[in-house]
Amino acid sequence: MKNTSDCTILSRWIDEANSVTTICHARPDGDAAGSSVAMESFLREMRGKDAACILPDDLPRTLGFLSEGHKVFRASRDMEAAQERIRRSDLLICLDFNTPGRTEKLEDCVRGFGGRKVVIDHHEDPEEGAFDLYFSDTQVSSTCELLYEVLCAMPDTGGLASGLPADCAAALMTGMTTDTNNFANSVFPGTLKMASELLEAGVDRDGIIRKLYRSERPNRLAAQGEMLSSLMKIEKEGYAVTVLTKDFFTRHGLLDGETEGFVNLPLSVEGVALSILAKEDGGVFRVSLRSEKGVSARLLAKRHFHGGGHEQAAGGRILVPEDAESPEAVEDYIRQTTARFLQEQDSAI
Ligand code: 5GP
Ligand code: MN
What we know:
Layout: H1 4-16, E1 19-24, H2 30-47, E2 50-55, E3 72-74, H3 79-87, E4 91-95, H4 107-112, E5 116-121, E6 133-136, H5 143-152, H6 166-179, H7 189-200, H8 205-213, H9 218-231, E7 233-235, E8 239-244, H10 246-251, E9 274-281, E10 284-291, H11 297-304, E11 308-309, E12 313-319, H12 330-348
Parallel strand pairs: 1-2, 1-4, 2-3, 4-5, 5-6, 8-9
Antiparallel strand pairs: 7-8, 9-10, 10-12, 11-12
Bound molecules: guanosine-5'-monophosphate and manganese (II) ion.
Guanosine-5'-monophosphate is lined by residues 29, 123, 263, 288, 307-310, 313-316.
């Protein structure tokens, strides 16, 4: 849980800074972008700061609304401006990542930043020494939930959701919603309390749900159909493997992020406790993993896919030809490593 004295320190550091910048992980999801813009809104609207967000990559189409009305630097479009913004800030607030490496191309800039660095995050094992002040808690649904607690502990809000700027409150609700997959995973008592308080404070949850889940293009459904009917392979050991190639994305005319959530689908089948989905992206395959309690998606990602994450939702990558000889060999690589991993887990119990 957040520590009240740390909130007092953060509040003072904000007061002492002129320019404050937030940054989140590469390929931001709703929680990363939501927490970044929520913090920016608090800093600007409640503290009158020169505040801005750095987004390492563009947002998927259905999350685009999150950045509207906020001061955002998109590093993938202008890396120089993003780095310059970080360098001339007094305070850097790092959201939804536990190590600067997760910002990818901005890692050196984050590590080399000379001012105060704060992390607010819900992943395990935050890197020691990488930040000056830590708000780190895995017993929350999302970074948005943790940030909600931190902001409610600030003197400005009087502990009330209604004390937050409206766009800040909406962004927090959005990030919590996407990280829990709309209340399906990682829901803690505090998650429902936060949702209830934000709703009471006037957040338009119906509007958020419409933007998040009812604003897709038909392409996505067609792609999902092909995935479910012919690409998803369910293995007898109780896991599912899906490989989406470059050709699949081209054929369906998919945009970045348009396959978001596909990895969850195989888990709806009885007996499937682990879903692994790989997407071809340039020279690598990006891997998403989701699991039921009792199977560690995080460990599998760490051991075999150069990644990590949460126990039940993790990610990483497969390198070609270092890990799998060719794109065609990726599916077998996943099968072999996963079967071995599950056997080791079984024998460890
Ligand atoms: P997704 O499958 O939605 O891309 O990622 C799920 C979760 O896995 C993210 O919230 C993040 O915690 C983690 N994750 C994704 N990619 C990586 C990665 O390359 N490295 C690490 N350490 N974690 C990742
Ligand atoms: Mn998150």
